[in-house]
Design goal:
- The strands form three sheets. The chain has an eight-stranded mixed sheet with strand order 4-1-9-10-11-12-13-14, sandwiched between helices.
- The chain has 332 residues and is of the alpha/beta class.
- 48% of the residues are buried.
Length: 332
Amino acid sequence: MGCAGRRGGERGEAVSDRTSLAVGGREPRVLVVGTMAVDAKGRPNGVLVPGTSVPGTVHLGIGGVGRNIAENLARMGVQTSLVSAAGADQFGRILLQKTADSGVDVSHVVISDAHRTAAYIAVLDGSGSLGHAIDDMAIMGLVTPALIEGKRSLFEEASIVVVDANLSAETLGSVFRLARECDRPVCVDPTSAILAPRVQPYLSEAFLIVPNLREAEVLAGVRPGEETDVHQLAYRLVNMGAEIAVVTLAEKGLYYATSDESGRVPALKRDVVDLTGAGAALAAAVIFGLLNGVPISEAVRLGISAAALTIQCAETVCPDLSLDRLYDELVV
């Protein structure tokens, strides 16, 4: 059975601007299908020494790419539902409570007493950039194609669907198929260079894709060590089917492209506490802008503002993120 409605407008109403998600008089809703996890992040006071520990700081928090995007959206006032999985353990309970407290609907999260809650361990360098990381996302195997099919009503209600690449290839296929049947746009976060190939087959169905530079190179088929021009790289992703490609460049900002326009936006210069989570904040703010009829050239600036706020926080999602702070950061 198919879904009713056309993306970006009232049900049955098509939209002429392919890069707009404006929903008219309806309250926008976002469906996120992705990971929720416990984060452990360590940052040395000095130089890392192989084979031994060094003094530094260790921060425990909540994360997961999909969950982070969902929380950022909820803090911007967007109705957001999360489909994910968590263990029936202390970490899982904390994740659910904290995520619900931020305003995200977590009633569709699978709880399992046979699996441990997903976890992510990052070792940062002295500047706050990622050095090494290990993730344990085995529990995401519970987010199956059958589970996705059972969430059809969420797809019908959504203004956009957001996925991260921690989903299995089969589950990603189900998400895109159901989004296609319901004519709902999909935003993709490739998550990592290792996981990015999972979403490559669906580039032609992506409304918005937000990779970092290395993820974009993998998606575009660039070999390691091969020099690339970010302008050409973003357009290559658009030529492969994505309607909007936003390539994040860390301290250099971002480059975006559609079939009609492109541009580079510099990062806002801020003191860095932790770069983790900046990409999720940026993606969420771009989605927020598009949902509210903001042109892509301005929506990406909201993304830069959200990333700037996030890197100044020890938490993966800035706990006092709000629309007021988002716009204040933009004009400082």
